Amino acid sequence: QLQLVESGGGLVQPGESLRLSCAVSRFALDAWAITWFRQAPGKEREGISCISSSGRPTYYADSVKGRFTISRNNVENTVYLQMNSLKAEETAVYYCALLARCSRYPNEYDLWGQGTQVTVST
For an engineered disulfide with 2, which of 27, 41, 44, 48 has Cβ 3.0 to 4.6 Å away? Predict the structure, then answer.
């Protein structure tokens, strides 16, 4: 069964960095696009970045442009999200999801990881 497993979340202070990982198991990653979403308490799930199957970053939400970088390593079957200059309002559960093409709309996705908590706080 295809699985996505996120890791790398944690507690950081404002201005600090984290790198999230999305590991894909039991399936080759190279034919698929991966999108990172986040969901804060009481808010809708938000698409923040997507990378296409070719490895080209396709989408960054305006709120993260210039601070977040998405990348993929098809040999390791893993997609990364480097997050710099984190802000307190970015505290959320971060999820990765898989689709044939990039889309920022969560209702188009059927396969999700379990999420990893990112807390940005002093």
Answer: 27
* Phi/psi at 77 (5° precision): 60, 40
DSSP character at residue 122:
-
What is the pLDDT at residue 2? 78
Radius of gyration of the chain (CA): 13
Kindly tell me the sign of the dihedral angle through the C-alpha atoms of 6, 7, 12, 15: negative
- Output DSSP code: residue 50: E
Where do we find the tokens 């198991």?
Answer: 25
User: Contact 14/88 with Cβ under 8 angstroms?
Assistant: yes
Other beta carbons within 10 Å of 86: 22
* 52 Cβ contact partners less than 8 Å away, ≥ 6 residues apart: 33, 58, 101, 102
